[in-house]
Write a structure and sequence with these properties.
By secondary structure, the protein is α/β, with parallel strands linked by helices. It is built from 14 helices and 9 strands. The strands form 2 sheets. The chain has a 7-stranded parallel beta sheet, with helices on one face. It has a two-stranded antiparallel ribbon with strand order 8-9. Strand 2, helix 3 and strand 3 form a beta-alpha-beta unit. It is globular.
Length: about 350
């Protein structure tokens, strides 16, 4: 049986963000819930029994939802730690969880999702109070480090047309807290909308806002450049929803239409077979949609060039200072030698 380096386990089917280009932000479907701790435990045992997670693999406790909203998060982490599973979080930082040694025991990373670095940007996307988000990020970092966490913190900065002038402000904040900064183009994170955009059937008002907010100029080029293959990068990962259903991939919502079966009651080999042999995935690959979702999230070229230039300038300045210091030292030594000669 194949093992996977990353398993996304949705512990929270609930998200409090209002992101207009995200499936969970735009459509608040009724009936979304948190994973039950007993079902969570049984599913982890199932993963263990079938060796689904590789030796150095990590369970991401997120997909579409906000994991820190889960009311029994400490119980879930206890269950994970008892099995010595490594785990990580992606969060909008709207909540600060209870952080102690148990919280960080097998924690590998925390990703902070940010739509900009101003209240203006947050009003437009997440809908949170910006100053509170900054306080929460700092609190999460400080408490985790105080509890002994030495892993990675990363800011995932979503680059929109309206927040270009805030990129380096956010980078300075990341540098102050000694955490990674990763700016990437924001994408239309909704399978149906991407499909409709490709077929020219997307609602006009949504199309208008996309053109104003997202960098979608190379959308069709990315789609048409998709290689003619029968595989998808998602086949290297597993995605499980809060009801312990095995999903086709991490881009689809929960529901029977996009489920391969339930890990608590269905045959694993049949589910994995269905996952790679179904009409939805074949169409997604054929149209180039899977290629888009994995290629469109990339760092802007202008940022990379600016960063390289800044690092080069810093290196030149550092070399110049070092050269100046060496010159002063040499001059001092010559002066001392001349004095002794007298």
């Amino acid at each position: 049986m194949k093992s996977f380096d990353r398993i996304y386990f949705e512990i929270s089917g609930v998200c409090n963000g209002k992101c207009p280009y995200c499936l969970s932000g735009r459509y608040k479907k009724p009936g979304r819930k948190f994973v039950d701790s007993q079902h969570f435990e049984k599913t982890l045992d199932y993963i263990t029994t079938n060796r689904l997670l590789s030796e150095n693999g990590v369970i991401g406790l997120y997909n579409w939802g906000e994991p820190f909203l889960h009311p029994q998060l400490p119980d879930l982490l206890r269950i994970l730690n008892e099995r010595d599973f490594s785990y990580g979080f992606s969060t909008n930082a709207s909540r600060v969880p209870a952080i102690d040694r148990a919280f960080v025991r097998n924690l590998k990373f925390i990703l902070f999702s940010m739509p900009g670095f101003s209240q203006r940007a947050y009003d437009r996307i997440h809908g949170f109070e910006f100053d509170l988000i900054l306080q929460n990020i700092q609190s999460i970092i400080r408490r985790s480090r105080d509890a002994g966490f030495n892993g990675d913190f990363t800011i995932l900065y979503h680059v929109y047309q309206f927040n270009l002038d805030e990129i380096f402000l956010c980078e300075e904040f990341a540098d102050q807290w000694n955490i990674r900064f990763s700016p990437n183009y924001a994408i239309l994170n909704n399978w149906w909308h991407v499909n409709a955009l490709l077929d020219n059937t997307l609602d006009y008002e949504l199309l208008r806002t996309i053109s104003e907010d997202l960098f979608s100029f190379d959308f069709r080029e990315t789609i048409t450049s998709a290689p003619r293959v029968d595989s998808c990068p998602q086949y290297n990962w597993l995605a499980i929803d809060e009801s312990c259903n095995l999903l086709l991939c991490c881009q689809v919502p929960p529901g029977e239409e996009f489920s391969c079966g339930n890990l608590l009651k269905d045959d694993l080999s049949s589910m994995l077979h269905h996952r790679q042999n179904n009409l939805i995935c074949r169409e997604c690959i054929r149209k180039g949609l899977s290629h888009y979702f994995h290629q469109a999230i990339r760092t802007p070229e202008f940022y990379l060039k600016a960063t390289n230039r800044r690092y080069a300038n810093k290196a030149i300045q550092k070399f110049a200072k070092l050269k100046e210091a060496i010159g002063r030292r040499a001059q001092d030594l010559r002066h001392r030698g001349a004095t002794r000669g007298r």
